[in-house]
Amino acid sequence: MKYQDMKMSRIFLTTLSLWLLLLAIPSEAKEGPVTMPLNFHSLFPFLGRVNEQNTGQDVEENTPQEQTPQQSFNTPHKLKVGFYARSCPNAEKIVADTFAQIVKTNPGAIGNILRLVFHDCFVKGCDASILLDYAQNNNDAVEKSSMFNGFLLKGADMIDDIKAKLEEECPGIVSCADIISFVTNEAMSLAGLPPRKRLGGRRDGMVSLASTVEANNLPLPDWTMDQMIELFTRKGFSVEEMVIMIGAHSVGVAHCDGFYERVNNFRKTGKPDPTLTVEVIEEIKRSCPDFGTNMYRNPPVNFDPTPTVLDNLFFKEMVERRKTLLITDSHLLEDPRTFPFVQKMAADPNMFPSKFPDVMLKLSTLDVLTGYDGEVRKICRATN
């Protein structure tokens, strides 16, 4: 056979191979962007580069009834709306339905989840390391055992319930890190904010260390404002964003042992905190009966009068009544760097609800693992 004939034959066979591979794509894939077999691009590199991901699907969906996040930051390019549209189409619905059932019997779950996502993402990124009871090749204490988290950190059992239902539907597909993020969106919706599109594609971390938490990656209740601003700035958040994020206390509770010294022995002076009014001191005493006695059970106290609604009453209580529970919250009221933001959100009932979701979106994309990094855990309490 002549050289020219051999060359034409090779071109024909290569073209035929391409058409056969394209025709072999299942018909159900025609509804969205085509996903080639993993070895397809290695056989034909000129057709483009394969996405570095093991599960999910990179597709953008139009959901008119939901708000599109107004992003003033760079979202990691591998986090996508509709990430599980093909690999686990019911994932977001399972998360929403399961959490809604939990909230019916436990309204405090909303605040629990918002605290959980903060305590996960601020330590080493949003990798669900806060959920681990033990980690691979790690005999050290895990994050949830740190004094910065303590036994009052709740929400892991809720994630367990949701993960179990997802594993029944689509085993090994949805990461625990994405579950935390999706549940956070549901918590905000149930607390009165408009639904928003959900970014998926996070993967789960394999390391969890209490020592990482305690390396000034989470605040303590008695921190100074300088310490707070340094931490939030280090994580990439402005002072205004810090104030907005602390506004999550709008649906939270504090426990008496975290603030009771402010009404009877502030900084070991034997006197109340001078920034508290007599009215607030008496209110706190009524909320924490029998403190320090055998009858004491450390009851939870709401930060504001609407503990299941994300509204601006947390800030209004500060400005109008000078009511704060935690010392770090009192700094917001007293510090000139933060007070102007507190004033604005107290005066405008729409400002905090409109700004809070964007700050939480930024939080939920902090130092995420994507592609081949980390893993997708089978259960959220242990590495695979």
Automatic annotation (TrEMBL):
Residues 78-384 form the Plant heme peroxidase family profile domain. The active site is at H119 (proton acceptor). One of its GO terms (biological process) is hydrogen peroxide catabolic process. One of its GO terms (cellular component) is extracellular region. Disulfide bonds join C88-C170, C121-C126, C176-C380, C256-C288. Its main location: secreted. The keyword Zinc does not apply. Its EC number is 1.11.1.7. Its cofactor is Ca(2+); heme b. CDD domains: secretory_peroxidase. Ca(2+) 1 binds at D120, V123, G125, D127, S129, E143. Coiled coil: none annotated. It is found in: Secreted. GO terms for molecular function: heme binding; lactoperoxidase activity; metal ion binding. Substrate binds at P219. Ca(2+) 2 binds at D304, T306, D311. Heme b binds at H249. Keywords: Calcium, Disulfide bond, Heme, Hydrogen peroxide, Iron, Metal-binding, Oxidoreductase, Peroxidase, Secreted, Signal. SUPFAM superfamilies: Heme-dependent peroxidases. Removal of H(2)O(2), oxidation of toxic reductants, biosynthesis and degradation of lignin, suberization, auxin catabolism, response to environmental stresses such as wounding, pathogen attack and oxidative stress. These functions might be dependent on each isozyme/isoform in each plant tissue. Belongs to the peroxidase family. Classical plant (class III) peroxidase subfamily. Belongs to the peroxidase family. Ascorbate peroxidase subfamily. This is Peroxidase. It comes from Psophocarpus tetragonolobus.
